[in-house]
Specification:
about 600 residues, alpha+beta, Flavocytochrome C3, Chain A, domain 1, FAD/NAD(P)-binding domain, 2 domains, eight-stranded mixed β-sheet, five-stranded antiparallel β-sheet, 24 strands, disordered N terminus
């Protein structure tokens, strides 16, 4: 964003997916906030969630919502026919559709939402650690060293994922990434490779806020697809596969006018996102997330029906218990999996952060830097492949009793926000009437509305005394008052003591003025990395490793790209490509395979 662009104290965005603090770590992510996986083509109502039995633990899921969805036999009459049927219009679905048309295939796309873009429209950066794109080669970038070498790259990456990724799949995805980004630019995608940060990143041009950076690109690729003859059907959730013999030959969906059947002569490509809003699927396949995540995600429509449909035709699952948690969320202790967005950044700022025992929950040391009239912070000496600040926060919280930490601040918090960083939340953005942020409905762009919502539903507690605040938070009052006293002493002395990672003096804001505020915070799901097992060319396979004829999937409907039992992630935003690049690249690769098959 240009230094000249500013927004007012009243109008700054509360819901951006990247804190002003920690921008170096955030800039390395393939996308920001919940922006990374493909759009969904399936019904959007999530299963009900059980009541809590203990903090952070959801009780007993019925697992009914994890059952395979059986296929159907071919109908007497099809409502449409094409070589390729794509489910979902995130980056992966749009790439699959347009590439298939480029290769001469006819294409039908179904999308359960009313518009294209899925999660990808919220993305920020296309990361490619392999450096296989043309512009990255011009920077002479590749990991672990330039020039790119497949064997060296795989050997470097595997330890980050417990050596549990299929080498052939990993290598193919790394190489397809460069091919995909070159292809996207060749089609007129307004993207550029820049050398900012630790890695040449491919970013969307233009003055658009990070939370909607790729909306322009997804809108363009939808338009490109229409102009190329792709047949799009919105508000049309997919509900079952149609199978003939052992082959998937089409899909059943529900359109605005009722049930429809679309035939796929070459194959069906699933680009429908993950399973993060399906508690039953989480409990069965990602139990760590089920137990400790504050809520599901990343988007409300990632409910996993397409995954269940594939299970119904014999698909295997990969990436068991693997998920990405790189942001905190406030916990209202209801088990409500409503998709919150707006107020969570407030409680991610560096307040007094403690666990239920009063132990500090700091992580990393901080450096200060300025840009124009703004002040930002980044962690000291963190390489680009480090877990980084966002994910460090969630892992610290998840390791504590109840899988939660507590953010404590007082009635002067708004003044302190501006002393912590300017701007304190998110990044500067235009505030014009046509700002793309205003087009979405996930959160209110007035942060005070979102703050009040958090107070109303209990995600943030408010009290006139620390003892009352402790009672509301379920803490021992003595623990909280002692912790606040120690903190206030540090603030008065101007030096943070008693913690391995002391705060900058700028963060030492005392908790003295009523009303007092507190929030129980914990990891939220950024992406689910468990999904359908695919071979190295994105064919969905059964538990014998044999491809299911006619069925393909991109990530994150597919799983295993960050290995087995990978919690929190140990690389850039869950994979070598980040979520955004992963979606586009693997949709592209799946279509390339389906057309050649």
């Amino acid at each position: 964003m240009s230094d000249e662009m500013k927004f007012s104290r009243r109008g700054f965005l509360m819901g951006a997916g990247v804190l002003a603090v920690g921008t170096a770590a955030a800039s390395m992510m393939g996308c920001q906030s919940e922006s990374t996986s493909s759009g969904s083509g399936v019904a959007s109502t999530p299963p009900a969630v059980d009541e809590y039995k203990a903090p952070g633990v959801r009780a007993t899921a019925t697992l009914e919502g994890a059952q395979p969805i059986p296929p159907e036999e071919p109908p007497a009459n099809w409502d449409g026919e094409a070589d390729i049927v794509v489910v979902g219009t995130g980056g992966g679905g749009l790439a699959a559709a347009l590439l298939a048309r480029d290769k001469g295939a006819s294409v039908i796309v179904v999308e359960k939402q009313g518009e294209p873009g899925g999660s990808t429209q919220h993305a920020n950066i296309f990361v490619n650690l392999a450096g296989t794109g043309t512009e990255q080669k011009a920077f002479e970038f590749a990991v672990p060293k330039f020039p790119y070498d497949r064997g060296n790259f795989i050997r470097w990456a595997q330890p980050n994922f417990q050596f549990s990724i299929d080498d052939d799949l990993f290598g193919n995805v790394a190489e397809a990434a460069g091919e995909c980004i070159d292809w996207m630019q060749g089609h007129g995608a307004n993207l550029a490779c820049i050398g900012a940060g630790y890695i040449p990143q491919i970013v969307a041009k233009g003055e658009i806020h990070k939370i909607m950076s790729f909306k322009e690109i997804t809108d363009k690729f939808h338009k490109f697809g229409e102009e190329a003859g792709v047949e799009f059907h919105f508000d049309t959730p997919c509900s079952a596969f149609v199978v003939e013999g052992d082959r998937v030959v089409g899909i059943k969906a529900t359109g605005p006018d009722g049930e429809v059947y679309y035939k796929a002569n070459k194959g069906v490509i699933l680009c429908s996102g993950g399973i993060g809003m399906n508690p039953d699927m989480l409990k069965k396949y990602i139990p760590t997330a089920y137990e400790i995540a504050v809520m599901g995600g990343p988007m409300p429509y990632h409910t996993g029906e397409c995954t269940r449909m594939a299970l119904g035709v014999g698909a295997d699952m990969s990436g068991i218990d693997s998920w990405c948690a790189w942001e905190s969320e406030q916990d209202n202790e209801t088990g409500d999996w409503k998709y919150f967005w707006g107020a969570r950044q407030l409680t991610q700022l560096p307040w007094l952060n403690i666990d239920i025992r009063g132990k500090r929950c700091n992580f990393y040391e901080w450096d200060e830097f300025s840009s124009g009239d703004s002040v930002f912070y980044q962690q000291k000496e963190i390489p680009f492949y480090s877990p980084g600040e966002d994910r460090a926060r969630t892992q610290v919280q998840a390791s504590r009793i109840g899988h939660r930490a507590y953010a404590i601040f007082d009635g002067k918090f708004e003044d302190y926000m501006w002393s912590i960083a300017n701007p304190p939340l998110g990044e500067r953005r235009p505030t014009t009437a046509d700002d793309p942020i205003r087009e979405q409905s996930l959160f209110n762009t007035d942060w005070r509305v979102e703050f009040q919502n958090a107070l109303d539903d209990g995600r943030i507690k408010k009290a006139d005394t620390l003892e009352d605040l402790a009672d509301q938070l379920g803490m021992d009052p003595q623990v909280l008052t002692d912790s606040v006293k120690t903190w206030n002493d540090n603030c008065a002395e101007g030096e943070d003591s008693g913690t391995t990672y002391p705060y900058s003096k700028r963060f030492l804001n005392p908790v003295v003025e009523a009303p007092f505020y507190g929030s129980k915070i914990g990891p939220r799901i950024g992406k689910t990395m468990c999904g359908l097992r695919v071979d190295e060319d994105l064919r969905v396979v059964n538990n014998q490793g044999k491809p299911i004829p006619g069925l393909y999937a991109n990530f994150t409907t597919a799983g295993g790209i960050c290995g087995e039992s990978t919690y929190g992630t140990s690389l850039v935003n869950s994979s070598i490509l980040g979520g955004n690049g992963l979606s586009w690249t693997t949709g592209y690769l799946a279509a390339r395979t389906a057309c050649s098959d």
